[in-house]
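Justification of resources, computational component.

The compute hours requested in this renewal are based largely on the per-chain cost of generating structure records like the one below. Each record pairs the submitted sequence with a full structure-token output. That output is archived, and it is also reused by downstream analysis tasks.
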Amino acid sequence: MTWFEALFVLVAGVGAGTINAVVGSGTLLTFPALLAVGIPPVLANVSNSVGLAPGTAAGAIGYRRELEGQRGRMIRLIPASLIGGVVGAVLLLTLPDSAFHAVVPVLILLGCLLVALQPWLKNWISVPSHTHRGAWWVIPAVFATGIYGGYFGAAQGVLLMAILGLGLDPDLQRMNGLKNVLATFVNTVAAVLFIIVADVDWLAAGLIAVGSTVGGFLGARYGRRLPPVALRALIVCIGVVAIVTMVF
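The structure output for this chain reads:
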């Protein structure tokens, strides 16, 4: 990797960390960047997952204020994310890439629609308002999203924001903090598994780790300033970009 290519990957990491902290889908920056500098797809996917884990953690730390009062939710949902992340990472190492290509764009589109229609759908879905438990389907949905996140991860945040905002709490900033925590556990457990059993391009992973950590703190600092309507619009826009990128 040349100095220019290294700088290119590092900048992509900063952008990915920022986007992941605010919405998710940072993989759509770093994964193509790794392919552009000549890293094979599977090795790029593995190295990208390892590199983005510290950045996702930085975003979660940056959103710690929004996590106040959500300890019970984290205790219930983190195991689902952990197990899902392990399953997804194993699938990445055992299944052909074509296995998810037809499903992933549909999942992202569904997530975008759910986020966009959340204020109206809330009136039609019964969610206990007096507890932090939310709808019964939140835990299995978080588990399924963890599988997807461990497998590839692009727009994992879009799906989580749709699930959490609809099934738990309409406050998108609080759910963004929770989303960052869950994504951190998915990315970390997948990264650990990849480090143990798969090949990692450590230069690429290191560059993305440094960049995404800086981006994670930047995203957390400025993302919380977005009003709900703007945040919802940003989630939908990034989701649409993810769909177009993956389809075309």
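The chain has a mean pLDDT of 84. The CA atoms of residues 156 and 245 lie 15 Å apart.
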